[in-house]
Amino acid sequence: MGSWGVKAKIREAVKRTSTNTILTQRASALCLYQISHVTTHHSLLYNDLYKPTHPLLLIKPDFYSFSSRSSNAFQLFNEMPHRDTELERTLFYHVIGLIKSFTARPTSFTSRIAHCLAFKVGALAHLPTSTSLLTAYSRAADFSSSWALFDEIVYRDVILWNAMITASVENQYFEVAVNLFLELMRGEGVGFDSTTLLIVVSASSHMGNLTQGRVLHGISFKAGSLSDSFLCNALIDMYAKCGDLSLSECVFEGMECRDLISWNSIMRGCAYNNYPEKSLCYFKKMTYSSEEADNVSLTCAVSASALLGKLSFGQAIHGWGIKLGYKDTSHNSFENSLITLYSQCGDIEAAEILFKEMKYKDVISWNAMLEGLALNQRIWEAFDLLHEMQFLGCIQPDSVTVLTIIPLCAELIFLREGRAVHGLTVRREIGSHLSVTNSLIDLYSKCKDVKMAEQLFKAIPGRDLVSWNAMISGYSQNGHSREAQYLFKQLLQSSSQFSLSTLLAILPSCDSSEFLQFGKSIHCWQMKLGFANNTLAINSLILMYVNCGDLLACFSLLQTVSAAAADIDCWNTVIAGCTQKGHFWEALKAFNIMREDPIIVCHDSITLFNLISACGNLELVFEGGTLHGLALKTSLESNIRVQNALITMYGRCGEIENARTIFRLSCSRNLYSWNCMISAFSQNKDGRKALELFRRIEFEPNEITIVSILSACTQLGLLRHGKQIHGHVIRFGFQGNSFVSAALLDMYSNCGRLDTAIHIFRSSPEPERSVAAWNSMISAFGFHSNGRKAIELFHEMWESGTRPTKSTFISLLSACSHTGLVDEGVRYYNNMWELFNVEAETEHHVCMVDMLGRAGRLDEAYEFIRQIPTRPEPGVWGALLSACNYHGDLKMGREVAELLFELEPDNVGYYISLSNTYVAAGRWKDAVELRRVVEDKGLKKPAAYSLIDVGMG
Fold it and tell me: At a CB cut-off of 8 Å and minimum separation 6, what does 45 contact?
């Protein structure tokens, strides 16, 4: 048969070879080195034993049992005419050399060609050749062919077994690798060596099976293989990855001869188990040994320095790395770790310089730089870098890239940019990664696009616990409590695996009294899972009880854990929760209990911030001043959040000069400082100073700034300035904000431009209208004596699905009062609780008394006050006194006034009102006597004033 016939046979054999299964490949360099070394040894041995003739022709049948494929190879050789022995020998060794070369970078196709050639020349019975061929199949991710070849070989030496076990590990069949080792141990004749143990220890490391690793350690000790430094290095790595760093250190300390890999393994193990201090300690010890640091050592040391924030130490290692020649090399893990070091230590400029000077950048380099920019709040530069990265030909964004940028969009609520990154994941086919999908669910949830998050969640074929937690948290954080709880119940039915994150995700769904019972069941479930002493779990439960209004359970839980687990975070949770839910006195009570606790818990800036806010809401200027002194005493007065809280507190208490002093002395004002001061001026009816401060603002205004300054324009009646602020609103894109829209409605309405207010209200889409916008518009109609339209708008609001609030009814009752719609007003008041589940408060009582008083129905107003279940506030009686004065009912007026003098003896308005009633009745003597009482008490009525815009500013 000629050469063309041989080639035809080879092509036919290639076609008959089975297709490969593509799997992930992972290499074991030591085993392959041994295979290559022993292959050469075997070849020399064969040459020495069988020099006269072809090696395979002298192999005895009882020494090698050939497979059917090997027999076919001999038959094929016998059929070939005109054989030349020297040519056959040359061809044989050429084929062996070719197979060896294929193992470097094999593919499934080249491995099949090598198999066919070996079959053709009869080299399959040559163990080194079969071993090389098995390795080639493994490296080509064709594990099934490796297994089939191994199964055909009857006589197997330890090198072949090692090659097959390595193939299993390379293709991530770790259980198969362990089973092969067990089969090797049970077999007779062929034993294992230290290389075998090294490979199986590597499999245990990948599996995270500590018990199995310990057994292998024992076998290694019994076999006397621990003198092999490679095996000891593998054991160090295995123990570290299984979480037992102490055993890893024991193996390291017990090594007689440590090499560079030993030091690198223990340093990586310390870093893996979050012990960067130990990692640096071993690095320092290595520098005193005979080993010289390599790229891996330097990378470990720099990473540990980054975790510890030791910039100077990292810089020293940077200089050492340059001295050793590791700058501008293709092994860029050292430079990548330096980018992370400088970024985490706040020197982002150095990180950028290093990144720009790198000659060999990989995707890890780009990801490290992206993360560094994000960490240092260089948000838009991070987006620019991602944009630049997409136009590179050699490097493209991967899953780590998008997992760096998506949480950034979620944190800053950048929905538009997040959607763009989502599109990138679809284009680059990265979106199928579960971690990416989970991150996108979190993004859309935080950006309040729950429907999109829900679609992504439902599209996941194999959800993990993170997916469930992200979706439950998304529902909880966006007020979809029932959906969150339903999904949680589904999780309970479908899985038995839960984590602390599951608990933290579901608890925020219990945000009102109707979910208290569900919250208590979660509390029981939390204790069953063993999270009873976990601080995060305790804080979440405390906040849940506060949100549900069960303060007794909240304080009971706090006192139960205070002796063991309560820290300042627990106390801050109680105080902040009470403050946010309006339980201001309870917040102050919690602080007093905290200070009396025998275990010393020191307050921090968060404690003072919430306590000062509580004092501001209660208008307790003395207690607020005491907390101010405590802040000065504990050096917390420089904290910007405490300063802003003090400005707000003093503003609400009318101490505007104290607020100005704090603002003026602040050295680190932020936008919220300016907002607090502008708001303080507005609340104290000093709109002129609010406008002056707004002109000097040092930051770009936000929605809060706009609302505060619009309130000032409303007070001053300055339509011209209000229009200018409206221009700011449009320019900055704030018109979609519900509070800004409501403030604009109030401003135009109070400045006499009801038509503009209606236009602004109607131009906003109905689903996006907030309760504040509806309330402002109802109030505007009432203010302009258009009560019927106010009532129509109220019904339109109810039909749109917007639930009325107490402020809605204040506006509605006020509109009815100003337009004389008494019967309608009484009907709405009576139906507040029954139809709308809104409980009447002092403001509603004042509106009702004012409405009945304006209509001259004073007896009804008096009886209405008497029937209020709680003790009426002075303002309610004050409204009746004004009505008595208006209608000249002296008898009832005197009775109501005497009552008010007892409740608020320093309120000059009540004296003036009764005095005017006396004057109207012609009783000048009584009026003069009452005026004399006012003078004796030193009471003064604030002077009234009118405003007109004459071109202010």
Answer: none
Residue 53 Rama label (left phi>0; alpha psi -120 to 50; beta):
beta
Question: Of all helices (H) and strands (E), which one includes residue 851?
Answer: helix 842-854
Q: Could you tell me which residue, 391 or 944, shows the higher pLDDT?
A: 391
Q: What is the DSSP letter of 394?
A: S
- Residue 801, SS3 per DSSP: coil
Amino acid identity of residue 678, one-letter, is I
* Half-sphere exposure at residue 795, Cβ-oriented, CA atoms within 13 angstroms: 6
Picking from 525, 455, 470, 532, the residue whose alpha carbon sits closest to that of residue 501 is 470
639 residue type, one letter: N
At 455, the amino acid letter reads Q
Cα–Cα distance, 886 to 889 (Å, whole number) = 8
The whole model's pTM is what?
A: 0.68
Tokens encoding 287? 């520098």
Q: What percent of the chain has pLDDT over 90?
A: 53
In which residue are the tokens 């304006």 written? 854
d(CA 151, CA 143): 12
| CA 424 to each of CA 402, 407, 727: distance values in angstroms, whole numbers, following the listed order | 9, 15, 36
Average pLDDT over residues 52-56: 32
- Residue among 290, 285, 288, 347 nearest 314 (CA): 347
Q: At what angle do helices 535-547 and 568-580 cross, to 10 degrees?
A: 20
Residues with Cβ < 8 Å from 527, sequence gap 6 or more? Answer: none
C-alpha 311/C-alpha 349 separation (Å) is 14
Dist CA 735 CA 742 (whole Å): 10
Give the mean model confidence (pLDDT) for residues 419-446.
91
Alpha helices by DSSP H, listed for 18-126, are 29-49, 68-79, 85-102, 108-121
Cα–Cα distance for residue pair 327/334, rounded to 1 Å: 8
pLDDT, position 610: 95
Instruction: Report the SS3 class of residue 58.
Output: helix
pLDDT tens digits, one per residue of 205-235: 999 999 999 999 999 999 999 999 999 999 9
**Average pLDDT, rounded, for the chain:** 84
Distances (CA, A) of 433 to 398, 402, 420, 430: 10, 11, 17, 6
- What tokens appear for 403 in the block? 């997992």
The structure tokens listed for 208 are 């995270």
How far is residue 91 from each of residues 66, 82, 403, 622, measured CA to CA in Å?
21, 15, 54, 102
Per-residue tokens: 755: 């038509």
> Do the Cβ atoms of 484 and 517 come closer than 8 Å?
no
Among candidates 331, 349, 325, which has minimal Cα distance to 339? 349
CA 295-299-301 angle, to 5 degrees, is: 120
Q: At residue 73, does pLDDT exceed 70?
A: no
H or E segment to which residue 473 belongs = helix 465-477
- Across 695-705, average pLDDT: 92
Neighbours of 140 (CB within 10 A): 24
532 CB neighbour count, 10 Å cutoff: 16
Handedness of CA 165, 170, 173, 174 (dihedral sign): positive
Q: What is the DSSP letter of 565?
A: T
- Measured in whole angstroms, the distance separating CA 345 from the mean position of its chain's CA atoms is 21
CA distance 239 to 99: 37
CA distance 93 to 180: 31
The span from the first CA to the last CA of the chain, in angstroms, equals 107
Cβ atoms < 10 Å from Cβ of 682: 23
Whole-number pLDDT of residue 936: 80
Check: CB of residue 885 under 8 Å from CB of residue 893: yes
Query: Count of residues for the chain?
Result: 953
Token pair recorded at residue 206: 């990948």
Average pLDDT score over residue span 604-633: 94
Query: What is the 8-class DSSP label of residue 242?
Result: T
pLDDT over threshold 50, residue 178: yes
